[in-house]
Amino acid sequence: MTVSAHRPWRGVLVATALPLNDDLSVDYDKYAEHCAWLVENGCDGVVPNGSLGEYQVLTPEERAKVVETAVSAIGGSRVMPGVAAYGSAESRRWAEQARDAGCTSVMLLPPNAYRADERSVLAHYEEVAKAGLPIVAYNNPIDTKVDLVPELLAKLHGEGHIQGVKEFSGDVRRAYQLAELAPELDLLIGADDVLLELALAGAKGWVAGYPNALPGASVELYHAAVDGDLTTAKRLYEQLHPLLRWDSKVEFVQAIKLSMDIVGRHGGRCRPPRVPLLPEQEATIRAATEKAVAAGLA
After folding, report:
1. What is stated as this protein's family in its record (predicted)?
2. Deepest in the core among 47, 134, 177, 203, taking most CB within 10 A?
3. 130 a catalytic residue
4. How high is the pLDDT of residue 6?
5. Which CATH number is 166's domain given?
6. Considering 31, 55, 138, 222, which one is annotated as catalytic?
7. Burial class of residue 72 (count of CB atoms within 10 Å of its CB; 0-12, 13-18, 19+)
């Protein structure tokens, strides 16, 4: 499947994990290779500088270079960077950096330095939209304490500030309400463990975590789900769900990096304050990953 030039956020876009060296510096060569490998395995693009990419603990220089590395590896139309920041001016600067690097869309959380009200949210997206790139909103009320409910998303879309939304609330019912309120707003699956439910509800894409480790099987699952091939989709979903559910847990970065290590990719360490998994967590993820590998899903 080719990336839609008009809506480059459609399809499977992987929120990329960031390979770190033993001294916790960024391994840009491995990151470039990882982006290319994901596309070779059927993914449509990448989302650098999301939470999974540990953007909060990168220096500004590192954060910019991550975007440039992805663009040079797979082309700007396949790269939708996260541009979240505490202030609207900084988010706008990251959107401008993405634009200047050759990207054709960005992903933006609401203001998250405090529990923002509706007026603040609208002002934030209006400001970042001035960079001139289409924005996919990211609704993560669990972490940000700001909930982009369907009515607010419809308002943001009606004002021309957003073209899509990565929906991470886990509330599948919202998909149907959103389709009624803003039929032209693209719904993107935002949590791996509600993939099937949101695909059936009309999602146009998936901002994905676990394809970092298992891209082929994940892409097959996504396409079966959106094409209505429920026999294939349900089988793969049940096989992958013991892993997919870690995407919604606090330890999702460590979990996905561990699975990457197990399948022969470079997951590696995380920067503090993220700490290593507990032994029982590691055992659970290791067993589920090895079972997926044994089932031919890697």
Report:
1. Belongs to the DapA family.
2. 47
3. no
4. 87
5. 3.20.20.70
6. 138
7. middle
DSSP state of 20: B
65-78 per-position pLDDT tens digit: 999 999 999 999 99
Q: Is 138 a catalytic residue?
A: yes
**Stretches in the chain below the pLDDT threshold 70:** 1-5
Is 279 within a domain?
Answer: no
Which member of 28, 166, 210, 222 is catalytic? 166
Query: What pLDDT does residue 4 have?
Result: 67
Output the pLDDT for position 38: 98
**Is 281 within the bounds of a domain?**
no
Whether residue 216 is contained in a domain is answered as yes
Residue whose entry in the numeric block shows the structure tokens 């924005």: 135
For residue 107, being part of any structural domain is answered with yes
Q: Is 207 annotated as a binding residue?
A: yes
How many distinct structural domains can be found in the chain? Answer: 1
What integer pLDDT is reported at residue 1 of this predicted model? 43
